[in-house]
Amino acid sequence: MKKVITYGTFDLFHEGHYKLLKRARELGDYLIVGVTTEHFDEGRGKINVIDPIMERIENVRKTGFADEIIIEDHEGQKIEDIQKYGIDIFTVGSDWTGYFDYLNAFCKVIYLDRTPNVSSTILRKNKFQIVRIGVIGTGRIAPRFISEAKYVSGIIVNSAYNPEKDSLDRFHRRFEIDCYSDHYDEFLENVDAVYIASPHETHYEYARTALEHGKHVLCEKPMTFTRREAVELYELAQEKDVVLMEGIKAAYCPGFQQLINIAKSGKIGEIRDVEACFSRLADPDSREIADAKYGGGFLEYGGYPLLPIIKLLGINYTKVDIDSILSDTGIDLYTKIQIRYPGAMATAKTGVGVKSEGQLIVAGTKGYILAESPWWLTRKFEIRYENPSIIEKYEPNFQGDGLRYEISEFVSKINKFGMRGYRLTAEESIAMADIVERFMEKRKKEAKA
Ligand code: CTP
């Protein structure tokens, strides 16, 4: 019996898939089809897959060509499968010609002609409108957003807005997109969505106006300085039926999500303490230090350490203690926030003038999770126990600088596919705004004193 194997994502099942499977089956007597997991696809940069795995498997099954369907979930699995199942022929479409020649050492490799003019990528583009997004603010993050957006299908960055002409001109020379330095309304007319990466104090106003115009909003952290404003924005987004998302990058990284899920699975017992730190020494002339009103470590970086705390311990904290070491101008060089929950506690530390270890520790009644710097990208973490010889290591997939996962989530939400809202809920984002508000109140009091 001649055994054939082929692999694919088979997203939005189409004619090209059908013909490929038919011809693959005709190459032998028994066809095994490997369908990729989302995790595996994410790892190889395919982050826009729409159909859930069970649906993709079902579509392959319905063709009647597969005698057996298996799951492909890791790099190197093809060699394993070929040996395990005693495969004679490995086949795949001609878009992969040459790429799998190394498998010739294990079986025969055949590249079948690809069906022209159809692909999941084309279907994804046709199925959903391309989201035209405008960037507000053209400082440090905006260029990163543009380069990472290229890895997400279904989105084009078509314009930028910044009332500061110099910065906008520099940006315009670098990226040839429409630029607006006034007429915010006009800028909004030509976009479906905005990414707000302007100075903190402008986030709320830009977000509110964009939402009022029915635009989807992805807003850098902190989205607002008060709880009330955050609630108002989420209510407005709901009323206008548009997406509002706070841009806390870590929340959307696959590794961070895995860490959270493992912590919640009971593997380390009951979670009793979450300790997270993010520090980056800033230049004395930088906005973080020089801006006496809105500079400082907490406003800049507070979203990072607060995220695992809120995700793991929730929004029902009973006490928040904030303490800072201030500069001469009154900005916080270092801030430590202690948050108390019934039965658990947490510490969030941020610094722009004090350097500390940027780690995340989640302590439980059976063990703890340690994620070393840069834990917010979550490329690796460990679970440790009382017995020091047991260490479980995790090295999740991570691509680029991580922003692409946030952008992908935003596009998915706009297109209303997937149930991805859980990665950072409105309630969690509002709880963070509440802590920002407490910080701002304290800062105001200290400034008066
Ligand atoms: N395939 C094909 N003809 C097409 C599209 C795909 O023969 N027009 C083949 C691929 O070469 C592969 C299999 O179908 O062997 C599964 O491909 P997959 O990557 O799932 O589909 P694509 O449409 O190529 O997906 P994407 O656009 O996301 O890359």
Overall description:
This protein is of the alpha/beta class and 449 residues long. The chain folds into three domains: 110 residues, HUPs (Rossmann fold, 3-Layer(aba) Sandwich), CATH 3.40.50.620; 128 residues, NAD(P)-binding Rossmann-like Domain (Rossmann fold, 3-Layer(aba) Sandwich), CATH 3.40.50.720; 174 residues, Dihydrodipicolinate Reductase, domain 2. Helix content is 36%, strand content 25%. It is built from 16 helices and 19 strands. An eight-stranded mixed beta sheet has the order 13-14-15-12-16-17-18-19. Strands 8-7-6-9-10-11 form a six-stranded parallel beta sheet, with helices on both faces. The relative contact order is 0.11. The mean pLDDT is 94. The site of cytidine-5'-triphosphate (CTP) has 17 residues, from helix 1, strand 4 and helix 5.
The CATH superfamily of the largest domain is known as Dihydrodipicolinate Reductase, domain 2
How helical, in percent, are the residues? 25-40%
Query: In terms of structural class, how would the helical and strand content be classed?
Result: alpha/beta
What is the residue-averaged pLDDT? 94
Low-pLDDT stretches: none
Write down the CATH topology of the largest domain.
Answer: Dihydrodipicolinate Reductase, domain 2
Which architecture of the largest domain per CATH?
2-Layer Sandwich
Q: What is the oligomeric state here?
A: single chain
Radius of gyration: 25 Å
CATH top level of the largest domain is Alpha Beta
Number of domains: 3
